[in-house]
Amino acid sequence: MTQGSLIEELAAIVGAENVLTEPDDTAPYLLDWRGRYRGKALCVVRPATTEEVSAVVRVCARAGVAIVPQGGNTSLCGAGIPDESGETVLISLSRLNRIRAIDSANNTIIIEAGCVLQTLQEAAAQAGRLFPLSLAAEGSCQIGGNLSTNAGGVHVMRYGNMRELALGLEVVLPSGEIWNGLRGLRKDNSGYDLKQLFIGAEGTLGIITAAVLKLFPLPQSVATAWMAISTPSAAVRLLGELQGAFGTGLNACELVSDIALGLVLKHIPGAQAPLARSPWHLLVEVSGESEEGVLHAALEGFLEQALKNGAISDAVLAQNSAQARRLWALRENISEAQKIEGLSIKHDLSVPISYIGEFLDRADAALKQAFPSYRIVAFGHVGDGNLHYNQSKPETMENDAFIAAQSQINRIVHDIVNDLGGSISAEHGLGQLKREEILRYKSPLEMEMMRAVKRALDPQGLMNPGKVL
């Protein structure tokens, strides 16, 4: 099949206007959010239904043409960007964006993969329910990508990541067959849990087209506070005390270094420091079914006691939702601020919560010795052990010189993570960024098990080649 005839077949399925071939039209799909990965594609196809996705995949499979699925293109690991061959078909799921059904009694929603996360959150709220996944890119990331990377965000400690939030999936397999696993069951012990193969697989085993996701009751009250602390180890101790005081009502516990906060204050219009500068900061959110005043009083009492015993040096308690949003904006805009500041090397890692302080102490010391001019921008989710441990380019250094040190920096950071029993990818995935790096930290047996699954489901190797494996 020639490239021209392939494009004609694809146009017959989705309409000529939804097969993009002109460089100006395809350009937004071929560059990642960070500007680190740029690829080429034979065309960008924009199907609007699962059946259209299936038909597109069947045509590509028959022609032996590789496929790159893409959601909101917010990946930080280049997972949704094709290689530079120009021979792949990029399938954008953005038109597959319907909310198919909400079952309030079952606390579930059936939603298509191209729906933006914020749209899902709003639909759940209109139904008097909460969809708890929350992350900085929620205004543009899509549900298919969230599932394909097993997204986490700030509420994992209470609600879990996407693996815990997904009950069922609909998937177009590499053959073009449609697997309908849209079951809204919390108990189903009838064989292998097949949906888990596709969650976190970054589109390498099939294309998620829809999902049954869990919903939760809307909390009656929410309280948010920002604290000044001295060390990450202090944050871990406070986490334990907060869990003791609020139990499962503790939604989020976010660590922010002063360097990270400084970039937000520098680059994000309207951002203001809530307290005097401190080496580290902790942002916490609690929710419950009591009246808002009762919850606020409880958190205020906790803060007063923490000040009295020296666990924190200062704190501010949001008095209304607008103030809470401003506090959250300081945390959620860190990645955007670091992007504006310039090139960075990113690490999305996890360690046991008890080792957060040790990891930061060891990694900071090793990097400062090897690269004293590099700035360490650290922040993340204390409640689940996931840290974003990034290095920003010195202002006077050229980009090429900075990036040349990435392998050495990765080795320092990842070896410490591995020594502490952690993972070099917590919630962003491997993509093409860590495809080779993971070979150092997974056993040959584990890698072969992954390859065996890939061969079984995608024997032609056409689904998102060059990612994960």
From TrEMBL:
<protein>
    <submittedName>
        <fullName>FAD linked oxidase domain protein</fullName>
    </submittedName>
</protein>
<dbReference type="InterPro" id="IPR016166">
    <property type="entry name" value="FAD-bd_PCMH"/>
</dbReference>
<feature type="domain" description="FAD-binding PCMH-type">
    <location>
        <begin position="37"/>
        <end position="218"/>
    </location>
</feature>
<dbReference type="InterPro" id="IPR016169">
    <property type="entry name" value="FAD-bd_PCMH_sub2"/>
</dbReference>
<dbReference type="GO" id="GO:0003824">
    <property type="term" value="F:catalytic activity"/>
</dbReference>
<dbReference type="Pfam" id="PF02913">
    <property type="entry name" value="FAD-oxidase_C"/>
</dbReference>
<dbReference type="GO" id="GO:0071949">
    <property type="term" value="F:FAD binding"/>
</dbReference>
<comment type="similarity">
    <text>Belongs to the FAD-binding oxidoreductase/transferase type 4 family.</text>
</comment>
<dbReference type="InterPro" id="IPR051264">
    <property type="entry name" value="FAD-oxidored/transferase_4"/>
</dbReference>
<dbReference type="Pfam" id="PF01565">
    <property type="entry name" value="FAD_binding_4"/>
</dbReference>
<dbReference type="InterPro" id="IPR016164">
    <property type="entry name" value="FAD-linked_Oxase-like_C"/>
</dbReference>
<dbReference type="InterPro" id="IPR004113">
    <property type="entry name" value="FAD-bd_oxidored_4_C"/>
</dbReference>
<dbReference type="GO" id="GO:0022904">
    <property type="term" value="P:respiratory electron transport chain"/>
</dbReference>
<keyword id="KW-0285">Flavoprotein</keyword>
<dbReference type="InterPro" id="IPR036318">
    <property type="entry name" value="FAD-bd_PCMH-like_sf"/>
</dbReference>
<dbReference type="InterPro" id="IPR016171">
    <property type="entry name" value="Vanillyl_alc_oxidase_C-sub2"/>
</dbReference>
<dbReference type="InterPro" id="IPR016167">
    <property type="entry name" value="FAD-bd_PCMH_sub1"/>
</dbReference>
<dbReference type="InterPro" id="IPR006094">
    <property type="entry name" value="Oxid_FAD_bind_N"/>
</dbReference>
<keyword id="KW-0274">FAD</keyword>
